[in-house]
Input
Amino acid sequence: MADVRTESAGEWLRTALIIAAAIGLAQASAGVALAHKGKLPTDALSLVRQAAALLAQDPKMTAEVKERLDAALKSRDPRGVNLAKVEQARSALASGDILATRRLLADAIVPVSAGTPAPSMPPSTSTTAGTMPMPPAASTPGSAEAVRPATAEQMAMMKMAEPLVSRYTGTLGESTTVLAGLVLVVAGLVMLRRGR
Amino acid sequence: MATDAVRRPGVWAAIDERFGLSDLAYSVPRHANTLPFSLGGISMVSLLILVLSGIVLTQFYHPMPEFANDSVRTMMPQFGLARLARGIHYWAAQVFLVTVLLHMIRIFLTASFKRPREANWVAGVLLLGISVALYFTGTVLKWDQEGFEALEHNLAIGHLLGGLWHWFAPSFSQAAPLLLRLYIAHIVVLPSAIFFVLIVHFWLIKKHGISPIPGNDGGEMLRFTSHLAHLAMYVAVLAGFILILTVLLPPVIGPAPVEGIEVTKPPWPFLPLFAVENWVGVPGLLWVSLAAFVMLALVPLLDRSPHTRPLQRRAALALGAVVVLTLVGLALLAWITKGAEHLGWLLSIWA
Output
């Protein structure tokens, strides 16, 4: 019996060593990834879209959002963005008003005349086309066009920037489905009890 | 009435003669009806529910990147067939993966992978791999920020592997976007693979029989058809819970994706890997995943002793417990900690 135990322990010690070696290998190669840091986009439109998405996902990521808004305000390529709104969004963020910040960022992405070239998209777009829809770009901050009310397209884009959480509303279909589920659970449990 | 009673056996006999259904009444041990030994059957039924609800979803989902997120959104506002199918699909996927994992833990605990069932353990590991791939592609398909970042990780791993994962490269197909190809993988390639391996899995179970409880080789037998009837009772409970959860906790669809940020955490099956990634970066994600699957497949080789009783396998069980506790610990760690940016290097390369 003791031999069996020793043999088994030996085999599993070997296994543990292999696992440790695999983890060591992973760690050794990890430096490759961590040595590179991501760069922020250079165009204001991408920066504002990223800031809006960050806030929509996690309102606590204010430092990352501020970094992007600062970069957007300094960007040499402000096409498609109302910088005055971005400035207001940065102030709202500084005062901790996340909701206002999100609304202002949605407003900051402005629709402009068609046919104007948009800021260049990252090369990966060709692989992953279909990220957040982008309005036609290029407007001068403060122009009449830049401050007009949100269009249906903008509203749709704002909607797409939010998670969609459905809730139970008590409709007939929902209630019937819940009831059917309860019947199945109870019937299954009763049959299992009888079938023992 | 009397005529029906006389006719029924005749009809049954006629059907049985043609389909051989009575062959299903072979003997299985009575413990096959216990919940731990029914987990594989429950996961199989969950897979069938996934197939049926998935077929319904194909009628509403648009697999092109420009429309994917919106097509999922249009399913959700009102409770109807699409929302019902998506909810069932989502919750059945959770049940499927949970029962598959519990099934594997049960096999390990009862040493059911030992001779002569080693090949079936390897088939099970393959099934787990395909299941995880199905879960992964399903996550990407909803095309929200979470799914998009999952795909970016996939691309990063593909980059690490060089030409091995050419299928993920944009140059592979100019006409079909990667999302469309992943959709085809999700609804055709991976289901075909899983059903192929399942046929092997079931054949080997039939060949070697349902494994005994360690230390209790004998015992009462019953018919397999009786086991199927018992399984149906578990499935009724399971289906009931899925329906209730579908209505009360419908799956969320996240915002349309934005490139260049990493802000989401992955779904629960990938949380341990997320913790590893936070620690050692994307290469760690790749190597740890590969190592885990290789180690899992090698379990029958590493624990070759003929002993199946827990007291005779204390070292193996202790190591198994350490692995499970580590995975749970990593998942909890990932859940409570803030994620880090892992793909910056990849984005830099693209830029």
About this structure: Chain A touches chain B through 84 residues (CB under 8 Å). The helical segments of chain A are 2-34, 44-57, 62-74, 83-94, 98-108, 125-128, 152-160, 172-194. Confidence is low (pLDDT under 50) at residues 25-37, 112-129, 133-151 of chain A. The radius of gyration of chain A is 27 Å.
